[in-house]
Amino acid sequence: MDSDSDSDSDGSHVSATPPRDPVPPPPPRISQPPPPRQVPPVSRKVASSSSRSKPIAPKQQQPPDHSEEAPVPSSSSPLSPLFTNLPFRICEPSNLSQPTRVSSSVSSFYRLRRASLTSEEKSTPECQSDSVNCVPELPQVVTDPPKPVRRKPPNLITDSVTSLPVKAPVFRSGGEGNFVKLNLNGKRGKKFPSKYKGASKSRSKFAYRGKRYKKSEADGGEGETLLEEESDLQKQREEEDDGFISSVEDAILAVKTEASDENLTKLLNLVYGYDSFRDGQLQAIKMVLGGSSTMLVLPTGAGKSLCYQIPAMILPGITLVVSPLVSLMIDQLKHLPSVIKGGLLSSSQRPEEATETLRKLKEGIIKVLFVSPERLLNVEFLSMFRMSLSVSLLVVDEAHCVSEWSHNFRPSYMRLKASMLYSALKAECILAMTATATTMTLEAVMSALEIPSTNLIQKSQLRDNFELSVSLSGANRMKDLLILMESHPYKKIKSIIVYCKFQYETDMISKYLRDNNITAKGYHSGLPAKDRVRIQESFCSNKIRVVVATVAFGMGLDKGDVGAVIHFSVPGSLEEYVQEIGRAGRDGRLSYCHLFYDADTYLKLRSLSHSDGVDEYAVAKFLTHVFSSETKQHEKICSLVIESASHKFDMKEEVMQTIMTHLELGEVQYLRMLPQINVCCTLNFHKSSPNTLAARNTIVAAILKKSHVKQGLHVFDIPAVASSIGFATTDVLAEIQTLKMKGEVTYEMKDPAFCYTILEVPREICSLSSHLTKWLAEIETCKVRKLDIMSSAAVAAINVSNTSELSAGAKQTQSLQSRILNYFNGDGNCDTPSKTTQNCSFLRADIKVFLQSNRQAKFTPRAIARIMHGVGSPAFPNSIWSKTHFWGRYMSVDFSVIMEAAQTELLNCVDRNAALAA
Ligand SMILES: Nc1ncnc2c1ncn2[C@@H]1O[C@H](COP(=O)(O)OP(=O)(O)OP(=O)(O)O)[C@@H](O)[C@H]1O
């Protein structure tokens, strides 16, 4: 497989349908519809009065830190044998402190999971023996778990990295299992019995009698008596739950009357079982309850979700949560406390599921709705809010995605401009949340969402329970990984994530680990959704010790006892690094994060950073096509077939989407984007004749007019049909679907396309394309710089381990921590010298030979530079061009240097051809 083509850039392809619950949810018990709005008496000055919250500092250029800089070691440099430079503290287990026990009242959770199974499911062998197999594949759209979950784990995560060196290690034996919500063991119940000790009297009684009942029934004994007892217990349980719900209602009412610390803490304790809020949580909740839009920056695993869940219980209207990944939404939906009814809407859902969610939303059953940015601003969705629903709070999760200067910019997030959100959704308040944003990113996000600089709550972006280490690696990286995993402390850690860059690596490494008796599975976005769910759940229930994954795994993963995160390759940025190590130590205990630094991989990733770059004339050609003469009619629905356009303009789909979104949301609104659909439809009429149907159906009549007949089938363009009768493309699609249900037609769709209508034609395509190209070039440069900064931090940590008195582990942790904190507190733009070469004597000669041997192709300087860097593009795919002798040969030479040389050689070539022709 080609390495760059299967790189998981960000996991955005991850999509899965939410799990379907085996039993239909009981009707909601919390008062519905939502009570009338009562604004709690919270001071709106909360943010400014807090000593911790601070306004965004003005942009600061980080001084270059050359003292720790080192030349990138060549991959051919000899490897230090058996990790002589491994920075771990090697201690005998006897010297280590005992694992911190986290008390967790899990019996109610177990009961909840059991209760949600039908009796047949409870008795299936899978359910008895393998909880993973019991996990439904298709998640249910609306959560309505039958029983409340009450847990009481401690508040372990501290707020900031203040004291260095790192805390004394708390030895992780791994025997405690998973203390957090993703634990699905509850289905099987085998791992929990010892924990029932701490459960309430009535619950342990229930668990015990349940067993007795089964046993005596099997014996053919006193079934009836036991049935009575069981029904008594059922009643008792219901009374208990009614009591619980009314206590929650009372606590909610108390907060509505006065949103005091005490009342909020009572509610927290009742619903979540936690004794206190973590740093930043209370402040954020009060801000939101007071109606102030807020930017919340807390480290990974600090409990950001709670900052919208609690307000959602209090505020009268709906809380909308925008998330970048469907898998993330599913996880968050699953983890809502039972007293909050949740739902999900995403573009990957089946229409019936979406309809059901919309119905529940209208009926007031759903209080928290997770929605993708694409869905959020679609016309149908918006009209529903305009007509009947009120949005009390709009949450932008992973808010850094709004900014093009973040590591994970999403064009669809550009749609979340505050002006649109306030006017289209009438959202009363916005809460933007992230764990990883530089000052520059925060400024961009807050400006887009119109959050005042005084409303920033920002804590340290790094937890202090990581031991961070880096070692130099190379051709023997897999062996190095195995040695690491067999050495202390890794060999005792029960839950480990290994991050790598390419999909093929996940399979290769997991197989290698399995061959060496380590239970491991590969995970990447190319796997079927069903397999991904299964792997994640096996990992969460500790059936798999190691998951070897691309970036597609882990965002939002809340498994408390992940004890180590290992980076098989250097991450693309410090943000990515912090997000990924953030999967470890969420239970507050010391966790270990090791990074294998390999210069070849760094160069390869640097080359890949150029795969989104575009040239001005390509952008101009693209714009000319978008605004071509056929598309200019007012209200005409235009379409751009993605695959052919991508090939024609040599632009990746995401780049075209970024440009289109900019044309919609930039200073001038040139166009309006419509839902992306397959535009080419081939229709086969079965029952009635086409003309009979057309006589009573406007859409069919339009289809007959606009289609051509090929082998008896009608082939047509959906936007063309829709435009001709002034309908939306979705109306045409819905009608075809209805006809199919009636047995009238069958159809096939192809050619996914961007659909849009033109609002204004740009007066000067040239200046617009120049502006767009400059902007895209800045994004490209920003991406490369982020990688350089990450690489430089890793190299500095390797070098620093030989230069001071501290132990290697502590020195490296300290070095990486300070780099990370400086980076996030500055504008993220530290001056890091590039590690690529600026000149190469044979480059021009090689380009010349390359051009001569490929006369038939139409190259651009960028296309040549990509080939020399071993990066495929839509018009020059790896499958064909990786066969050339020059593929990836100049990876170590700066991309712009190759582009320049290619430009000169291409001009020489044109001159030579002209001379020959003359
Ligand atoms: N006050 C608290 N006391 C104890 N545990 C808490 C508290 N608040 C949240 N938690 C727990 O912390 C864990 C992490 O919470 P959450 O998933 O919201 O983190 P996050 O900040 O969104 O992390 P990430 O950015 O990595 O997704 C959850 O298991 C949650 O229940």
Automatic annotation (TrEMBL):
- Places the protein is found: Nucleus
**A GO biological process this protein is involved in?**
double-strand break repair via homologous recombination
| E.C. no | 5.6.2.4
State the Gene Ontology terms under molecular function: 3'-5' DNA helicase activity; ATP binding; DNA binding; four-way junction helicase activity; hydrolase activity
Residues forming the Helicase C-terminal domain are 477-635
What reaction is this protein's catalytic activity? ATP + H2O = ADP + phosphate + H(+); Couples ATP hydrolysis with the unwinding of duplex DNA by translocating in the 3'-5' direction
Report whether Ribonucleoprotein shows up as a keyword of the record.
Answer: no
Where does the record place Low complexity bias?
40-59, 73-82
The record's annotation in NCBIfam families points to: recQ_fam
Supply the name of the protein.
DNA 3'-5' helicase
